[in-house]
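Sample intake — Peptide ABC transporter ATP-binding protein
Collected from: Streptomyces clavuligerus
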Amino acid sequence: MLLDVRDLHIEFRTRDGVARAVNGVDYGVEEGRTLAVLGESGSGKSVTAQAVMGILDSPPGRITRGEIRFQGRDLLTLSEKERRAVRGPGMAMIFQDALSALNPVLSVGEQLGEMFTVHRGMRRKEARTRAVELMERVGIPGAEERVRQYPHQFSGGMRQRIMIAMALSLEPSLIIADEPTTALDVTVQAQVMELLAELQRELGMGMVLITHDLGVVADVADRIAVMYAGRIVETAPVHDIYRAPAHPYTRGLLESIPRLDQKGRELYAIKGLPPNPAAVPPGCAFHPRCPLARAVCRTDEPPLYEVTAGRGSACHFWRETLALAREPSGERPPPGAGEPPAPGTGTAPGSAPGSEPPAPGSGDDGDGDRGRSDG
């Protein structure tokens, strides 16, 4: 495993109290594979990435528990000097706002060349030559002339290509792409994602793709981890997620994608708003917005149940969610269509048909069905 994140907890101290931004996140990335981390703003996906990179603002952010293993080393035990040695040659990050991430008073050639003068000890002339080569590699035309230009002289798509060039300059083993297509038009989004996929295949890198848009991951990712309120609520191979989601939140995200074959159908939106990280509701954090929520969801936080090998869902009623997706009509019905089974008539994870999920304090927390599901 190239990257292995285990039981990661991150909190922020705010005026409203302690905001638990990340609550027990587990995920892994293998060499040459792509994990898409999907979720709404505030779900904790970017904070997790910042912790992996070692660039979490501290204070106010603080890692309270967990491990982040990269190539077998626990990064949380390293000094800042040792972490800096990992960034660049080992792992690199592509930020979502290229204009803010790039230095406005330095030419792009100087910024790209700095990667080689600082990390490789090259002379400036040689570093500039490498900068031109990188710009050509990521598809920037006229690189020999444009290497002297400044970030504001490039379009949004070209600036993002420069960010990709900087991230790839030292040929890292892992790329973390944080919303790399934000604010780009659809055509440019496709070009940027195609470029990332092509370079990943060429260099054999692992990649963590952070996004809120299911539409950009279908052709790029191998696995998806869906985050909500600081937790991973579903993880599975990408095609399993699209074919039959096992968590109501994932299902809601899929139903929110406009479809050309459903003319006249009102566009679906998940009701309500994500919870305040400083005041996450008890039980399942999604229950106030969930069409399948029952009493147990308001009191018992679901573990990540093992749906199948390599697939997990943090939903007490994942079987019912799968059944809705697999109805013989061939279409996913809109979330909330039909009432959930009455208590005692459904099949809950880890229980026999017709039984309710274990009551709080019963001693049975469903661990028999629980397993590592991130592959």
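Post-analysis note: The longest strand covers residues 17-29.
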